[in-house]
Amino acid sequence: MFRITKIKTLIMNYFYYKTTTWDNSNPNVSEETKDFWQHLSEKKNWRITQLPNGYYQTEYKDIVDDVWHDVTRRETIESAESAIDGSIEHYNKRLEFLSGPKVVKTFK
């Protein structure tokens, strides 16, 4: 029993390490992914549609084709736009992170 528990603990620690560790000096993000994030960080690539049930659906335009992909559904148009703004902020932060660590405070 002890041996199985120890093995499970080692495996879980390994998966935790592999999923939470990222080398800040060299994030391995492809150019395709960077372009996609850049595309999603621009509000002109988003729209809101009203569904037959009265809900509003946020959608983004495909980076290649003229196809729209649904993302979220909200009860009001204001909350749908807020969801889009949150997504844009999220992808802007991802793009900012790719430039590497930034100085947030210095001491004299």
Features:
about 110 residues; alpha+beta; 3-stranded antiparallel β-sheet; about 15% strand
Strand order of the biggest β-sheet: 1-2-3
Round the mean pLDDT to the nearest integer and report it.
83
Major β-sheet annotation = 3 strands, antiparallel
What class, by secondary structure content? alpha+beta
Q: Write down the secondary-structure element order.
A: HHEEEH
Strand fraction: 15-25%
Number of helices: 3
Low-confidence sequence ranges: none
Question: Would you give an account of this structure?
Answer:
- With 108 residues, the protein is α+β, with helices and mostly antiparallel strands.
- It has a domain at 31-99.
- Helix content is 47%, strand content 17%.
- It has 3 helices and 3 strands; from the N terminus they run ααβββα.
- It has helices at 2-20, 31-40, 77-98; strands at residues 46-50, 56-61, 68-74.
- A 3-stranded antiparallel β-sheet has the order 1-2-3.
- β2 and β3 (68-74) form a beta hairpin.
- The model has no long low-confidence stretch (mean pLDDT 83).
